[in-house]
Amino acid sequence: MFARPGRAAPSAGPPPKRDPRQLRRLLAYARPYRGLFVLGLLATLLSSGLGLVFPALFGRLIDASFLRLGAQNTGPLDRTVLALLGVFALSALFGAAQSYLLARVGAAVVADLRRAVFSHLLTLSPRFFGDHRTGDLTSRLGTDVGTVSTVVGTSLAQAAAQTITLIGSVTLLVLTSARLSLLTLVLIPLVIGTAITIGRRIGRASRAVQDAVAGASANAEEAISGVRVVQSFTAEQVEEGRYGVGVQAAFAGALKRAGLQALMSGSMSFLSFGSLALVLWYGGRLVMAGEITPGSLVTFLFYAFQVGGTVAGLSGVYNQFQEALGASGRIFELLDERSDLPEPAHPMPLTRAEGRVTFEDVSFHYAAGKEQAGILRDISLDVPAGQIVALVGPSGAGKSTLVSLIPRFWDVSAGRILLDGQDVRDYAKRDLRAQIGLVPQETLLFSGTVAENILYGRSEASRAAIEAAAVAANAHTFITALPQGYDTAVGERGVKLSGGQRQRIAIARAILKDPRVLILDEATSALDSESESLVQTALERLMVGRTTFVIAHRLSTVQHADRIVVLEGGEIVQEGTHSELLARGGLYRDLYELQFRAQAQEARVAP
Asked: Where is the ABC transporter domain (predicted)?
């Protein structure tokens, strides 16, 4: 109902796979911290072992108090209390150590896993990001990674500790009273079965909530990043509705989960206390018959509570494992994703390119492997180093697509592109892209300072180099007039600066990078006349000595290019200088005369 035109409404997609082998992959991230993990596990086991001691001591305390009524010697009672206090103190000490050590491991694994996922995302191609929403990816980085951290942090240790506690408690139950143990062990399967059955339903409900929250987050991400468009179309209510659908789905899922959790809590409470009442009833009869002492009954009850507690704890750990396996499935889907732009097995060295770019029978279409018309067809073009080539043509002709193939944002579907006579696919992508500078129409600045954004061109550059690049880009004057000069924060996506200012910072960034091949994709089309003049002057300085591809709708800005290539329908239809193309006629002259008449009309109606 609230889907944007041309875009499907978000869906949760297929449920993540829960492969137990993923647990081994998760544990691999804990390997660097195995020393801390082993210490935490040891502390957990010692704390659990001490937990098995105090019920026996408590039973002795009861017998020392009630079976020795009137006795003057309180030594046994005193020694038992001291032993209890010692057990409690040691148990608290080991419990605190366990909590800190395992939390330390969990936090470290989360940090490493987030870094690994984010680093891997940066290696994927634009095709991948075109198929996945940003909000969903950030949800996996945040929520899903946090979920799996419980496994490598506390869940494994809890599972080990509670297993030991369960085995020890059951053993001591039998040693304390075999007859009472039979009654207790009959009740345990009922408790376990109930916990597992309801726990599985809680796990499914939790995953549904996670998916709904991820969908709502993706909608919010899009609306917030495009808030100017939302507000300009007064579409606030539409976006509120879209976000509200996701929130309502999460709310409904949370209510279902809360109902199941309430059912779990009530069922376990009834079963636990009902079992306790039965054990007390039967144990009381055994005490009255003189078959066990009151202290033994109390000891038995403590062990019974431990059995029940560990069963409930193990069911909770089981649910945590299920949630973590589901979340890890989503994470490992990303980590297993492979770029469709493979690196060469033996990359050719590339330190400083000359800048010759050659297109040999290049064809391209976006949906690889599907039957559809190509975006580009049989493009052949040889651009010598240092030449300025303008690409013109109607919208959709394939101009931006053509230049995006040079830095391998996409790979050709047929043919090849050469840099200095070598196929660009033979170079490491990092080395290739280091030779290419891009100044797009919509400049993206990051939410740092002006200096940090210029440094994106070469992170090790000095402050003097930054300022020199800004001077060359006609940006130094306005930068020094900012409140903190080069240290002024530009805001998210550079929102605190004008379009012309952002564009000049982008040019300074490209100047600092000093690329051999330069791509200017509509770099001045969205600017006013004054800003365009400043930017155009900066661009002319930037183009000197570089192989440059200029895409521009305003043909007046490309008249002085060494060569103009005219594209239509993904094919080269004309090629030559400005004067040659005008004299020859055809599409270029038609476009030029159309723009000339439009400009003349604007001049006549201007006040």
From this structure: 357-594
